[in-house]
Design brief:
By secondary structure, the protein is of the alpha/beta class. About 40% of the residues lie in helices and about 15% in strands. Strands 2-3-1-4-5 form a five-stranded parallel beta sheet, sandwiched between helices. Bound molecules: adenosine-5'-diphosphate, nicotinate mononucleotide (NCN) and magnesium ion. Magnesium ion binds near residues 15, 16 and 35. This is Nicotinamide riboside kinase 2.
Length: about 200
């Protein structure tokens, strides 16, 4: 059986950290990182606020992301091999795809594909603190967090709630270890229930 799991939520909630740990513990597990689908910098719109609008769906090549997901759905074994994931002979029937990113549940062609949608959040102050310690390929200009990142997070989250998208909320303030064990057990149960 194959399942697609979303590790979504706010920037700096701990999505990438959690996803990378889960991959090591799950059978035949591939990851698709939404961050890999950011468009080049010269294609990112500049808003009326003067900021490059990185945190909107239009800044991501979502068609390419969906095509990548479809390639996994067509042939997870081939996809795993192509992405350097060794397929375990005793579990070849089980395949897990982890989609990881900050706008996983706002793009209609993806939203119904998930067996489980996790949503990691931390309080505003902690998010801002973690973000200020991060170095992205394109560094945040002063004021970006409050002027663009946080308002866009709130906007998309509100839309998701209005659309009734069901998510499993995760408290990103828990330790890395606690989150890992909580989600691993839950995914294992999802696998058992779908077999
Ligand atoms: N459970 C956690 N508790 C404390 N810090 C964490 C936790 N998970 C991740 N971090 C740290 O927070 C920052 C953002 O983590 P990351 O996994 O890159 O988040 P995201 O992919 O959601 O932006 C990193 O410095 C990471 O080491
Ligand atoms: O990866 C990039 O090229 C990149 C370039 C500019 C900005 N980002 C930021 O990456 C953030 C999403 O990644 P993450 O891991 O913080 O969830 C998002 O808030 C963007 O502002 C990312
Ligand atoms: Mg990340």
């Amino acid at each position: 059986m194959k399942i697609i799991v979303g590790i979504g939520g706010m920037t700096n909630g701990g999505k990438t950290t959690l996803t990378n740990s889960l991959q090591k513990a799950l059978p035949n597990c591939c990851i698709i990182h939404q961050d890999d689908f950011f468009k080049p910098q010269n294609q990112i719109a500049i808003g009326e606020d003067g900021f490059k609008q990185w945190d909107v769906l239009e800044s991501l090549d979502m068609e390419a992301m969906v095509s990548t997901v479809q390639a996994w759905i067509r042939d997870p074994q081939k996809f795993a091999r192509a992405h350097g994931v060794s397929v375990q002979p005793d579990t070849t029937d089980t395949h897990v795809l982890l989609l990881e990113g900050f706008l996983l549940y706002s793009y209609k062609p993806l939203v119904d594909l998930y067996s489980r949608r996790y949503f990691l959040t931390v309080p505003y102050e902690e998010c801002k603190r973690r973000r200020s310690n991060r170095s992205y390929m394109v560094p945040d200009p002063p004021g970006l967090f409050d002027g663009h990142v946080w308002p866009m997070y709130q906007k998309y989250k509100q839309e998701m709630e209005e659309d009734g998208v069901e998510v499993v909320h995760l408290d990103g303030m828990k330790s890395r270890d606690e989150l890992f064990h909580q989600v691993l057990e839950d995914i294992r149960n999802t696998l058992l229930n779908s077999s």
